[in-house]
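User: Before I run my own analysis I want an independent prediction to cross-check against. Here's the chain; please return only the structure tokens and, at the end, one sentence I can use as a sanity check.
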Amino acid sequence: MASASAISSPTIVHSERRGRQIGTVKLFEIVAAPADARIGRRRWAAPPVLAAGPPRKRESVAATVTDAPAVVEKVIGEVNYEELAKEMEHASPLAIMDRALQMFGNDIAIAFSGAEDVALIEYARLTGRPFRVFSLDTGRLNPETYQFFDAVEKHYGIRIEYMFPDAIEVQALVRSKGLFSFYEDGHQECCRVRKVRPLRRALKGFRAWITGQRKDQSPGTRANIPVVQVDLSFEGLDGGAGSLIKWNPVANVEGKDIWNFLRTMDVPVNPLHSQGYVSIGCEPCTRPVLPGQHEREGRWWWEDAKAKECGLHKANITHDVGNGKGTVAVNGVSHSADIFNTRAIVGLTRTGIENLLKLENRKEPWLVVLYAPWCQFCQAMESSYVELAEKLHGTGVKVGKFRADGDQKPFAKEELQLGSFPTILFFPKHTSRPIKYPSERRDVDSLLSFINALR
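Assistant: Structure tokens:
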């Protein structure tokens, strides 16, 4: 990581709290309380030096106030990220990067993929602020990419924080389906194990992340990305929907301008670029492109060209909420799409869930998600729910899904406690009425804790 002395103030620090609305974050100011309000009161112990940027959660350590100045929190405003995105739509990548690092301090990191994302690191360096960089090592990158990682670390004097896939999950995938199953049944399963799940673990340690997404990279899925947004596909440090902010400083920059910048700044670049590779991922799924071909044609070339995302930026595929039919609109074209597709999750019909409701003594407990394919919150929890189902496979807990939109919505509201999508229900073994999962936290560990407390 880049290191620098923390900018500090003895009296004021801005911290972030999640507001009532997704995309709105409250800002608090720590101020000294009047002297007569301090006598004989108990408070949270304040550190002697307060670092700039959003701090981590306070330790619950009580201290008796004597001569030390007390602190109280005062709401000074809110951040609406839709408005901020509009405000910064025409800002330079350097200005956007500076704002991101200023707002989040040590709780934000740059996602470095081994391609032209080195531009992000250069912009971060130019701000003069401390910054962190992380990368996903899938275990199947090109040798040139690993050499590039090493060159970048030496050039900038940093340590990239690598995230690796779970060895047991990779072993299970390869043993059951072989090394190249993605050529036969699509890349999503392999990407989920090698990229999406490691990314989910990494992002749980941050409140925001910085990506190298550009609108011109994939007209079908990235044409409308803003420079800053609430990330509804993953959860951040505080957990729950809306707990992670995603910054895209080069969203409005064209690829040729990125390359002009890299050449001007004389920074390391992946040697594969000189061999015709433009968009670089894992070795088996990346190839050079021919003159005139779009850069994404070098990724997963055996699949549908309209929606080439590995799952890291799945929210780019926008869904038509209005029709309630679970269709995906990609570049103006509608495609049917369902979610939670894995053998470990049982799709329940209306009859099936009605029968489950009637049983007072079930052979095994059930966990069921009530969902709508077009719902962004359902899409956001897809990977974690699939991972949970795979973990629970063979443990005696059945995992299911019931599509509860459209004609099924009145029934789901009346009989299944549906309030909003997604609603998660646990059907215990010996209780007729299902128990509704009460939390917005939809990560695997939180869901497992809920199940283990009731099974």
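Sanity check: The chain has 13 helices and 20 strands.
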